[in-house]
Amino acid sequence: MKKVAVIIKEPYQQYEGLRTSLGALLEDAAVKMIVLDNEIKNMDEAYSDNMEFLDEMEGERFSNNPVNIKKHGFQKADMEQIGRHLKEADVVIPF
Three-state DSSP class for 26? Predict the structure, then answer.
């Protein structure tokens, strides 16, 4: 099984990063979606539903932003942990 890390730095790319994460999960990859620095910009119903789908499909979500951790249920990851996730990945998709 391929390991895919989707790293999302740009707030305007958050939705595309989530959609890419879901697409990789549908292709039977192990996915770690990482939102760097920024809070989730638009937590509308569609984004929330897609994050629930990501969780149900056993994708993982990480962030170094405390708001995403506390408010949106992301797992906490500092830069060292994020670096390890990226090194472990077979494919890194940046946004």
Answer: helix
pTM of the model: 0.94
The position carrying tokens 């890390």 is 5
**pLDDT, tens digit, 9 for 90 and up, residues 26-74:** 999 999 999 999 999 888 899 999 999 999 999 999 999 999 999 999 9
The count of domains in the chain is 1
Going by C-beta distance under 8 Å and a sequence separation of 6 or more, which residues neighbour residue 66?
76
Contacts of 22 by beta carbon, 8 Å cutoff, 6+ apart: 50, 53, 54, 57, 59
The alpha carbon torsion through 36, 38, 39, 44 (nearest 10 deg) reads -90
For residue 60, what is the domain's CATH number?
Answer: 3.40.1260.10
State which residues form the domain around 55. Answer: 3-94
